[in-house]
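Worked example 3 (structure in, sequence out).
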């Protein structure tokens, strides 16, 4: 089940690349799909949710909401 995060400051494809890199720094095999229009980031990873969220925060983005789909 992918982890679904809402990241309101996801504005463009550069943000998508930044967030993807941040998550893949935690788990190199993570599958990250992010859409600047919906502000949703879908992540398939075995890494801990807290580790993923803190990596995204350290990249300069805010995680507003989290849900498992
Ligand atoms: Cu951007």
């Amino acid at each position: 089940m992918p982890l679904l995060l809402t990241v309101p400051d996801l504005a463009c494809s550069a943000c998508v690349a930044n967030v993807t890199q941040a998550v893949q720094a935690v788990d190199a095999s993570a599958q990250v799909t992010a859409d600047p229009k919906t502000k949703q980031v879908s992540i398939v990873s075995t890494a801990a949710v807290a580790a993923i969220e803190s990596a995204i925060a350290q990249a300069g983005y805010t995680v507003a909401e989290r849900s498992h789909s």
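Notes: The chain is about 35% helix and 25% strand. Residues 3-68 form a domain with the Alpha-Beta Plaits fold (CATH 3.30.70.100).
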